[in-house]
Amino acid sequence: MSKPYSQSKALWAITRASFKAIFNQPTAIVFSLLFPIIFILIFGAFGNGGGPTYRITMATGADTSNALYDALKNNPSIRINRYADTIALNKDLIKGRLTAIVDIKAERDSLNKPHFTISTNTTTASSNTFFSFKQVLEYTKLKFDAAMSADKTEYVTIDEPEIREVRKYRQIDFILPGQLGFSILFSTLFGIAFTFFGLREQLVLKRFYASPVSRINILLGIGMSRLFFQLVNVVVLILFGYFFLDFTLQHGALTFFEMLLMSVLMLFLLMGVGLIFSSIVKTDASIPLLINLFGFPQMLLSGTFFTIEVFPKWLQEICFYLPLTQFNNAMRKISFEGLSIFECWKEIGILGVWMVIIYAILARVIRWQ
What we know:
The longest helix is centred in the middle third of the chain and has 31 residues, at 171-201. The protein has helices spanning 7-23, 26-43, 67-73, 86-94, 127-148, 171-201, 204-210, 215-244, 253-280, 287-301, 313-320, 323-337, 345-365, and strands spanning 54-58, 78-80, 100-108, 114-123, 156-158, 162-164. Strands 1, 2, 3, 4, 5 and 6 form a 6-stranded mixed sheet that branches. The chain is of the alpha/beta class. β3 (100-108) and β4 form a beta hairpin. The chain contains 13 helices and 6 strands. The chain folds into 2 domains: 54-164; 171-365, no CATH class.
């Protein structure tokens, strides 16, 4: 007599097989577990409490050996920066990265109690943060006066700010270069990787490889159309920003063409990455996973949507060496600060190192069939 069919065993067998199948697919693990962890770590690194952060620096000769300075330093919304030279300080002031230069002067009255005068120096570029920072100063003053005495004696005086008129640093001057980098990154990687993989699977590359055409010309021929298309997108985005959103091109047409040259350099770098991905995967379903693993951390950590200074110091050091960070920094220096592409030698140098590494890897892994 045959045993009755066990539905429970069948259910268990199907469940177990399906569970194993999930872990046989790396994409499921990455997208359901790894990416959420990455996002939590990145966005958890913002500031201390999610509120605004005011970057200030102390004026030369400011009194920093008193309780008032300690109150400012211990305020979680205030970050006190130190500058090695005045050139870097003035650049941050002009671009609105620094809220104010703060000076504290102290003197004692006849009862030997300290009285403080706070003076501030800022620019119109920091108007979006300075006036809320003034409220923080006023609140600090009230707390300090109350702690010093129960009466209404004022121990802290806040002078009227000195506000210098500068060329306005608009939000678009930060956002548009980052959006250019974002567009170039993902469009180039997806375009090159899928195009090259498709040609390889259809044996087109194998036929090319067997022809007298040199391998470098084969690669350039495949990549140039995609690079040209991306360059057209860059032109459209820059011109749209300039004519409709008042994006700054410091030296007009010269700045425009230098931004295009910088984009070409980044496009060639990303073409190598796309070719690597298309060569090491076995199915086209794995291409998006590799692109996202390479692109998402850069999208979030390279100053695309917000400055990397919101992150802790140790994370900023990592962010600095990412290729998209260097591209974004160079594009902002060229467009707003008016630097020539040759003055961005540090950014170009780091991108050059990345390019050497990427094409050295590509030479070893590239597959023609």
